[in-house]
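Suppose you are handed only two things: the residues of a chain and a line of SMILES describing NAP. What would the bound structure be? This form records exactly that question and the answer produced for it, so the two can be stored side by side and reused later without any lookup.

QUESTION INPUTS
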Amino acid sequence: MPVKISLIAAVGENGVIGRDNDLPWRIRSEFKYFKATTMGRPLVLGRKCYESLGNKPLPGRANIIVTRNKDYAVEGAHVVHSVEDALRLGAQIAEKDGVDEIFIGGGADIYRLTLPVADRLYLTEVHLKPEGDVRFPPFDRAQWEETKNEFHKAQEGEDADYTIKVLARKAG
Ligand SMILES: NC(=O)c1ccc[n+]([C@@H]2O[C@H](COP(=O)([O-])OP(=O)(O)OC[C@H]3O[C@@H](n4cnc5c(N)ncnc54)[C@H](OP(=O)(O)O)[C@@H]3O)[C@@H](O)[C@H]2O)c1
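ANSWER OUTPUT
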């Protein structure tokens, strides 16, 4: 069973995904969507992104952290030193667990390095144009087909409306 590589990101209308090593918005229901979508699948995270998510492994899925620091170790998570190793390990774990997809949860460096081999993009468009210091890398939309487009109104206490999109790479 070939393992698909999926990037998952919440992106402002201006491309911003982060500010000061945190998200530039608070949208509880979108974060729940992220957790539910990645549940049971290997999840690859850059070291900064991992630490920004509370510095402890997200439960119910193999967390694969990418860092250049050979001394970095996290109990309950896998630590690797290249994106290639992350993808290789993710595929091995997915096959062992009988799932057909691994997720790339960012941040920007990790998205940029994995975009060329991605099969699907789970992009939540957050309807804000926040200030930020990290952006989703540019990509050619013409190479992707939208397979999901679902608008969500902000719930009480949430910073913005958002649209969940899933894009699949066109064949050929
Ligand atoms: N909106 C979203 O969906 C979303 C998703 C993810 C993250 N974010 C935001 O993005 C920001 C964090 O992302 P970021 O782009 O700053 O950092 P990041 O990609 O999460 O992590 C960068 C770190 O990954 C390691 N790394 C990067 N490339 C590597 C390579 N080729 N080989 C080995 N290790 C490598 C390095 O770790 P070492 O320094 O340890 O060597 C590097 O400092 C935060 O603001 C976060 O909230 C947003």
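WHAT STANDS OUT: The beta strands are 4-12, 16-18, 43-46, 63-66, 78-80, 101-104, 120-126, 134-135, 144-152, 162-169. The CA atoms of residues 93 and 112 lie 23 Å apart.
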